[in-house]
Amino acid sequence: MACATLMIQGTASDAGKTTLVAGLCRVLARSGFAVAPFKPQNMALNSAVTEDGGEIGRAQALQAIACGLKPHTDFNPILLKPGSDTRAQVIVHGKAMTALEASEFFGPAGKNYKALAMQAVLESHARLSKQYQCLLVEGAGSPAEINLRENDIANMGFAEAVDCPVILVADIDKGGVFAQLVGTLALLSESEQARIKGFVINRFRGDLSLLKPGLDWLEAHTGKPVLGVVPYLHNLLLDAEDALVPYARQSSSKPRFRVRVLVYPRTSNHTDFDPIRLHPDIDFDYIDIQNAADDVLIGADLLILPGSKNVRADLATLKDKGFDKAIARHLRYGGKLMGICGGYQMLGLEIDDPLGIEEGVGSSEGLELLPVITELKPAKVLANVTGELTLGSEAVAVKGYEIHCGRTSVLGKLKRPLWLLDERGASADAGCISDDYQVFGTYLHGIFDTPEALDAVLGWAGYRGEGKAVSLDEHRERQLNRLADTLEAHLDMDKLKSLFL
């Protein structure tokens, strides 16, 4: 039996493509289908390390989990990671190949890039087609972006190349859902319009009977069926592709342990903090350093500097906005400070980029809170890590992954060595902790995913409450099943399956 392919495209970014694909992956996997996710080209700063030693978008790793699979580079053959507003690192089949300015994407270099990228995309699709019964493909942004349609590989260009049907999803919560759908359809070519086999309306709140006249009009006007209206799922917290997703906690009269994560222009892998956001006793918030006053950190118990795709530029922004002084004040008051990946590099004495790996040759003074120096190198470290973390007196289970260009060296001998032991028992270059025990840096993304490790970090930071960390893996499974149950209840699954199976 030939592999069947169905593509989910959206009227805009954040229309619900990632969530719909993840949910449908779980629906089909529960029904016994050998299903896999696929996204030809992704642009995101949240990424994951695959079982074959590469890097893909975090959303495709989530979708793989929904299928019961381990992430693989073929699920997302092209990943673009923005380092600035005009420049992005190009990752092909999991490996960083080059960096291009936005203008280069549309010049001769861009034409060559798109030809090579399409070849990589089709190679991955062909390999997956031999392994699975069906592929669920996620588009990128909107297929109706006029300036991006030439040599497109992310939306209709791919759909036409592999001759697959398309479902178009729109977000009604933003308003103007009928204009979104009809307008998108109108901007496509006739062959592309014919490829769209139905619509899904996402994030609906209210009485569905009030929407029905509009649905009837939409079907009559376009000649295409509405396959379902998906309700707004409050507090659906799944690994985000890129955007910071709000998560509303129940109010509490008792004081909570306060954790603040500083957000800079090129923050990466903020999914690291999902387990903290789920903790019952944590008052969690993201702090946008470009728009917040530095006094917003007053009263925090734990500050965290997350990863960054452009460490020196983000560090400069942090200093320009006065948050280096706010961090120093936080430490004087006895607060704890943690850095992950790029945040760990910022905590050191110096970050040196002799080859211009990120955005230009140069060197930057760090926050000088840990006795480490970092040099950025062309070869990226990509590794999944499991083992034990010794932060206090006892070792606890930990798992996570490393994605970084920096090589960080500790100067001198630490009074309190920090050990991360891999499954073979050998020490890994995990990070370090300051002699006064106030500042802790590590390269390990996902360090909080293991409840024991999160409890250990919170204990180090001063948390003395009775609440325990939740298992992110168990939470993710519950959320994926909740999503799949909702889709089965609100989509015409028989009609949807008939489109491609």
From TrEMBL:
Q: Which residues form the CobQ/CobB/MinD/ParA nucleotide binding domain?
A: 6-236
Q: Does the keyword tRNA processing apply?
A: no
* Pfam families recorded: CbiA, GATase_3
Q: Which UniProt keywords apply?
A: Cobalamin biosynthesis, Glutamine amidotransferase
> Which InterPro entries is this protein grouped with?
Class_I_gatase-like, CobQ/CobB/MinD/ParA_Nub-bd_dom, CobQ_GATase1, CobQ_N, CobQ_synth, GATase_3, P-loop_NTPase
Quote the catalytic residue positions. C341, H445
This protein's pathway reads: Cofactor biosynthesis; adenosylcobalamin biosynthesis
Domain CobB/CobQ-like glutamine amidotransferase residues, every copy:
258-451
Family membership noted in the UniProt record = Belongs to the CobB/CobQ family. CobQ subfamily.
Please explain the role this protein plays, according to its UniProt record: Catalyzes amidations at positions B, D, E, and G on adenosylcobyrinic A,C-diamide. NH(2) groups are provided by glutamine, and one molecule of ATP is hydrogenolyzed for each amidation.
Recorded hits in HAMAP family, A to Z, give:
CobQ (MF_00028)
- What is the name of this protein? Cobyric acid synthase
Q: Which organism is it from?
A: Shewanella jiangmenensis
